[in-house]
Amino acid sequence: MKSECVNMIKEHPFKAHPWHGIPYGDKAPEVVTCFIEIVPTDTVKYEVDKATGYLSIDRPQKYSNIIPALYGFIPQTYSAGRVAEITNIALNRTDVEGDNDPVDICVLTEKDITHGDIIVKARPIGGFRLLDHNKADDKLIAVLEGDAIYGAFKDITDIPIQVIDRLKHYFTTYKDLPGDKSPRCILTDIYDVKTAHEIIRRSIEDYDNTFRNVR
């Protein structure tokens, strides 16, 4: 056991960058590894600093709404041309671009998980097509792998409407600031598990096309 630990340290002497150094999982897109940044008890929005890989304070939450699920991103994904193409096709547009971030994901679970900066295995079951300042900002919806309650859900239509409404409210208001005359994030539609899987495949292609030398 000691020799195995020594070998592991030699092969990986530094902490993996959450975006570039953690695999998305060999069962993707059906099951993916997610890096969780914030949880429902957080009153501050944390976000991975892209340069260092450490969590940083993005901003205090301006209002009382909280994220009703674990929230983070899928490592080694990227929202660029291939991801934006799905939004353009769905909306019959040509001007939408990717938001140049890893793909965001919400993970539903009946467990109380009290802090972020963790990795979890999750099964995507659908998603929200969101526009943020005219950029594709998809929010995938997933369930924690093996969860006692949500683990049986196969598609976003299995989720109670009350949970969907809470997620919709959060994502259409969480970036708004006092004095804003119009919402920053627009939800155009909700899609199923098949489309969620396609978003993941395309985001992996976008990542490989952009960061193929990072690996």
From TrEMBL:
It is an enzyme of class 3 (hydrolase). Coiled coil: none annotated. Pfam families: Pyrophosphatase (PF00719). One of its GO terms (biological process) is phosphate-containing compound metabolic process. GO terms for molecular function: inorganic diphosphate phosphatase activity; magnesium ion binding. SUPFAM superfamilies: Inorganic pyrophosphatase. Keywords: Hydrolase, Magnesium, Metal-binding. Its cofactor is Mg(2+). Its EC number is 3.6.1.1. One of its GO terms (cellular component) is cytoplasm. NCBIfam families: PRK00642.1. This is inorganic diphosphatase. It comes from Dysgonomonas hofstadii.
